Amino acid sequence: MNNTTTTQKNWILNLCKVFFIRLVLILGFNQIKSIMSELLTSIENIHAYLILGILLIFGFFEVLSGYLSQTQRTFSDWIQEVGGFLVLIALIKPAIVFVIMLSGDLFFSNVQHAWANWNFGLLLILFLLVDDILQYWYHRSAHEYEFLWKLHRSHHQAEEMGFFISYRNAGLYYLMMPNIWWVGFMVFMGGAKAVALGLIIKQLIIIGSHSTISWDKPLYKSQFFRPLMKIIERIIITPAFHHAHHGKSKVDGVSDPNGNYGNMFSIWDQLFGSATFTQQFPKEYGLQTDPKESWQVAYFYPLLKDKRAESELGKGFEKTDTTSLEATTVRLEKGKTYLWCQCGKSKTQPFCDGMHHGTKFKPLAFEAKRTGDVKLCNCKLTKAGPFCDNSHLR
């Protein structure tokens, strides 16, 4: 295929993406009118169908772009992603809402539907903001605390992006997710219609940010739309923003798997110092160290555990301290980016191997200024990281 043909193909594909986004936005505004009507009397019937519709639309365009025909996904990947979605939407969410409704009816029946007469717009804003900040901190905690990380880890094992990845987590991760319980509370208080519309808007952004149909790419490249995108990315999660979170490591200069935790709005990452804005996309996705557990272990952990000692989901697995007082002499190449371990758990000291996941530590990315041997700190006490400053002697 010559360059002209390739350029024409890319131009047509980008045009289709822009058209698709505009179409979805138009349909979204029309849907608001529909939801405002009496058709939205049952949250289970309406919002579930519309979310399935969003999945089908993104799936159609991923097929159209040729992605699904080239995917390297395994059977285990599909089970985790599609199966996880079906269990979540058909069992876990309804069960949590049922528990909230039943408990509320038994113990707090006097306040049931107390918000039913509130302004619809106010309820919608309340639902979205509380839902999103709850999920931000839950998601962030899943990267900073070991047990939650193990429940969330399978989400980052995916080596390709796609709309179903957003449903790839352990079952217990969803049962403990606070914003799902918030959904039940809102329904109990009389905000079912606001919840239904909020979930549709939320899923449109989440599925879009995980999909390979990166609607922001052509807009970033356009001189006309680029300034607008600078504003949009400061409000909602874009594909570029979230894809960076799924990148393998910071070595590529784009990825930040220990940042960009936002689910729908990027404002929380900006407020709490975890935002990395980029217009580029990672070169590699997945985990630095991945023994690839079975889907059964990944989904049913901690009820099921891996039999291998190297697996984080294995019985008796522990991260050990691998620091030492002596600096490590390594040879660096000028212009190459390296990740220096700061957690002290890496098995490839002084470099990072991903053992920091599930802790509040992050590796330090640095670019070698010259080719040659240097002493890198291995005691993790240096004030001049990654280089040794003899702090281990004090």
Please provide a written account of the structure.
There is one protein chain. With 394 residues, the protein is mainly alpha-helical. It folds into 2 domains: 3-271, no CATH class; 320-394, no CATH class. Helix content is 48%, strand content 5%. It contains 14 helices and 4 strands. It has helices spanning 3-35, 43-64, 67-70, 75-107, 120-144, 146-152, 171-175, 178-188, 192-210, 216-221, 226-232, 239-246, 267-271, 295-300; strands at residues 328-332, 337-340, 364-367, 372-376. It has a two-stranded antiparallel sheet with strand order 1-4. Strands 2-3 form a two-stranded antiparallel ribbon. Helix 5 (120-144) runs antiparallel to helix 8 (178-188) and helix 5 (120-144) crosses helix 9 (192-210). The longest helix is centred in the first third of the chain and has 33 residues, at 3-35. It is globular. Mean pLDDT is 85; it is low at 22-45.
What's the short version?
The protein has 394 residues and is mostly helical.
Write the layout of secondary structure elements.
Blueprint: H1 3-35, H2 43-64, H3 67-70, H4 75-107, H5 120-144, H6 146-152, H7 171-175, H8 178-188, H9 192-210, H10 216-221, H11 226-232, H12 239-246, H13 267-271, H14 295-300, E1 328-332, E2 337-340, E3 364-367, E4 372-376
Antiparallel strand pairs: 1-4, 2-3
Helix pairs in contact: 2-9, 4-8, 5-6, 5-8, 5-9
